[in-house]
Amino acid sequence: MLNFLLLSSELIRVHPWQNGLRGATLPTFHDDLKFLNNHTEIHVLTDGRDRQVLVSPKLQGRVFTSTLGGPPGLSHGWINRELLESGEDKPHFNAYGGEDRYWMGPEAGQYALFFAPGKPFELEHSYVPHAFDKEPFDVAEKSAKAIRFRKKMKLPNYAGFTFQAELKRDIRLLDDGNIYGGLGIDADGLEAVGFESVNTVFNRGKEPWRKETGLVSIWILGMFQPSDKSTVVIPFLPGPERDLGPVVNDAYFGKVPQGRLKVGKDVLFFSGDGQCRSKIGVAPPRAKPVLGSWDAENKILTIVRYTLPEKPGTYVNSMWEIQEDPYAGDVVNSYNDGPPAPGKKPEGPFFELETSSPAAALKPGESLTHRHQTFHFAGDFRALDKAARKLLGASLSEIESALKPSKP
Hints:
This protein is mainly beta. The chain has a single domain, classed as Beta-galactosidase, Chain A, domain 5. The protein is built from six helices and 20 strands. The strands form four sheets. The protein has a ten-stranded antiparallel sheet with strand order 7-8-9-10-20-17-16-12-14-13. A five-stranded antiparallel sheet has the order 6-11-19-18-15, with no helix packed on it. The N and C termini lie far apart (45 Å).
């Protein structure tokens, strides 16, 4: 039987599994909606009941957050309230937050989009391109459950080539068929919300995009609330390193400290506590089309599924160096925020689940599409455990016991 909560002079349904979470660390969806409405333009995708998603056209068409429990339900995305309240426009990167934001890679290297030609690959010289950090996306169509954006971009790279690009970005709220049927899991004992972004980039210039002058990729990043008990889970293809290469790239910002990353037989675990700036990646020969996280504090299972070609493609390399191979990049990444240096303030904290498209070697008029889906599940522990085993290849008890982080 459903309980009820009095909110804004209305009776709103409260799911039984939410009763034990009223003191949880995550804000409510109602709180985040109220806050965002005071600071930016918001479009709400809704099924008319409990599944709702907040999208901001002004802030680069990002999905800020979602809920599976209506207004009193937990809000799943990380939102940078301090930055939005300040109204500040930061020169390097406006980390507004959001469960699904659009970027393009590569970040660094000889074909970098985030560094001016000749500049060293250091944080003080990194600038996110204005097109997907500061400028609004244009709304082309919208309905109760979907919204479409278009955006034209000029993106110069480190090698001096300028990409004339156009983006089409569709955000859609998913129904039961797309969630449970699409993932091949049983709905019994579970509550869920799911949404997807379908992102298509077009070459609108007169020149082809070639490896010799640099290629770009679609890069989707989701920022989530950290907790001391949040663990990122990434399944991978097992096999000898001589055939498939290393399982994980754990050297983006220096070696991941001991206790924060564990590599199993076919699943790796990475801390999402927001306490140590670190990043990992999995390359095409090892990647599977799914990753996720388990928040054992708030009892939320998050799943990300994305477009992964059957045959490993070419992926841009975002390592902060002049690279030996600029097309030996990763397909999936996870970033855990933390202080960039001792005594420095972190951006968040938050953790990220990220996916990328293959490099876009496009002739004029051609396009490439990358689909990124995000799902959140709550409910009966046994049902959540069954879903985690099916989708991530690890039980919840395995995930919870995998890491013993040391202090950064």
